[in-house]
Specification:
Chain B: InterPro entries: MDM35_apoptosis. The complex is a heterodimer of chains A (219) and B (68). Chain A is built from four helices and seven strands, in the order βαββββββααα. Chain A has 219 residues and is an alpha+beta fold. Chain A has a seven-stranded antiparallel β-sheet with strand order 1-7-6-5-4-3-2. The longest helix of chain B has 17 residues. Helix content of chain B is 50%, strand content 0%. Chain B has two helices and no strands. The chains are: A alpha+beta (219), B mainly alpha (68). The interface between A and B is medium-sized, with 34 and 29 residues.
Chain lengths: 219, 68
């Protein structure tokens, strides 16, 4: 989630800005705005609540075309105007493809404290993308799964090795090896144990690269 | 600005014109009675509603707490 905020000042009165707000489109910089419609409007108390629907061209980089195949994006703009307090609050968000990219923008238009004939716009925006987050989650999940699979593979490999080479496995807690060692003379038992330990150490050292390969590449 | 539905442009223009007049002439001066533009809004809305369904869009409604 990315957060963004900025403040801008309009050298116009709040009343002027409020009126201009409904006439924002079209303008020389709004070629990307294709349509604008008021879909609901009502007075509640002394405030004006409006919802507008906008469609804009969807400028997506080449790689984005994997996720989005629409040439236009629909945007809902909701606003509340308080002419007594001289506050206009707007919320703008895209609808459709929200999982790919969601942008929510809030703007508060108020009379400037510096100059009552000016209007200050405090803007906040929240940008989120489920794809980006999912991508990260996939990586984390994949890595964890790989690590577990890796450990299981080493454990399984060790088990196969222990089964193939029981003498080497005698130093590990195993009933068969215990039964085997109990039949031997103490001296030979020690030798066998030493040999087993040595073999285990060799096996472990040979298993070293396998453990290492379970770690993610430090690229 | 064009409407989402080409055939709604004329109705939109009529409504917008009424609203803008009411907004600067009445609303900003404290008059909250918006009945004067209601008939224009109604026919314009009917047109847009049809268009949004054509465009596979649910007709958007305010949610409570949206603007809190």
């Amino acid at each position: 989630m990315k957060y963004f905020e900025s403040t801008s000042v309009f050298h116009f009165s709040w009343d002027q800005v409020a009126q201009g707000f409904w006439r924002r489109y079209p303008n020389p910089h709004s070629n990307h705005v294709l349509s604008e419609d008021t879909v609901s409007r009502e007075i509640r108390g002394s405030k004006l609540f409006t919802k507008r629907l906008l469609t804009k061209t969807n400028r997506v980089p080449k790689w984005g075309e994997c996720f989005v195949n629409s040439r236009t994006v629909k945007i809902v703009e909701e606003s509340v105007m308080d002419p007594n307090e001289k506050i206009l609050i707007t919320y703008t968000r895209n609808i459709g493809y929200v999982r790919v990219m969601s942008i929510v923008e809030k703007v508060i238009y108020k009379v400037s404290k510096e100059n009552p004939n000016w209007t200050v716009a405090e803007r906040s925006a929240w940008i989120d993308s489920q794809v980006f987050g999912f991508g990260r989650a996939i990586q984390a999940f994949g890595l964890e799964r790989f690590r577990k699979n890796c450990q299981q593979m080493v454990g399984g490999f060790n088990h196969v090795l222990m089964t193939m080479f029981p003498l080497t496995a005698t130093s590990l807690p195993h009933t068969t090896s215990d039964e085997t060692t109990s039949q031997l003379t103490p001296a030979k038992k020690e030798t066998l144990k030493d040999a087993a330990k040595k073999a285990t150490d060799i096996a472990k050292s040979k298993a070293g690269p396998i453990y290492a390969s379970c770690q993610p590449n430090q690229t | 600005m064009d409407s989402i539905g080409e055939n709604c442009n004329e109705l939109k223009k009529q409504y917008d014109s009424c609203f803008l007049n009411w907004f600067s002439g009445r609303f900003l001066k404290g008059d909250t009675n918006d009945e004067v533009c209601a008939p224009f809004f109604k026919v314009y809305q009917q047109c847009v509603k049809v268009c949004t369904y054509c465009n596979n869009l649910k007709f958007v409604h305010f949610r409570d707490g949206d603007l809190s």
